Amino acid sequence: MRIIRINENNAHYWHMRLWNWLAKHPSKEKGDWPGWRYVSTALFNCFACSIAAYRARKDDKKNTIVDRCEYCPVVGWKLDIDAACEKFDEFGKWKSSKSPKTRKKYAKIIAEKEWEYLK
């Protein structure tokens, strides 16, 4: 079986696949997604985090986990603080919720989040 390497051209596609699956399976966690057998491992099981880390390394001035968040491709999640998505945004609400209805709602929102691309 061929493992697909995540890059800036395909990460958003796999992000949508992961989060649409989580919307259909609200009791599951990101690590449970069956798609992991087809794609290379993503940082924190998050395609956006992987791209953010890649961008930070490419910039070469930013190499820490904290600085990585500044490079997040998800529109509205790029903040200059560590793991802002967990603390303030839809991801934090999805992660902390025990309600299947709430998890489904936020998984759908995350799946549809717009990404910004480098020009």
Describe the fold and architecture.
By secondary structure, this protein is mostly helical. It has one domain (11-111). The protein is 46% helix and 0% strand. The protein contains six helices and no strands. The chain has helices spanning 11-24, 47-59, 65-68, 84-88, 90-96, 100-111. Helix 1 (11-24) packs antiparallel against helix 2, helix 1 (11-24) packs antiparallel against helix 6 (100-111) and helix 5 runs antiparallel to helix 6. The longest helix is centred in the first third of the chain and has 14 residues, at 11-24. The chain is globular. It starts with 10 loop residues before the first helix and ends in an 8-residue tail after the last helix.
- Helical percentage: 40-55%
Q: What is the typical, i.e. mean, pLDDT?
A: 85
Q: What's the helix count?
A: 6
Task: Specify the biggest β-sheet.
Answer: none
Which structural class best describes the helix and strand composition? mainly alpha
What order do the SSEs take from the amino end to the carboxyl end, as H and E?
Answer: HHHHHH
Number of structurally distinct domains: 1
Shape: globular
- Rg, alpha carbons: 14 Å
Total strand segments: 0
Give the termini separation.
33 Å
- What are the low-pLDDT stretches, counting only 5+ consecutive residues below 50? none
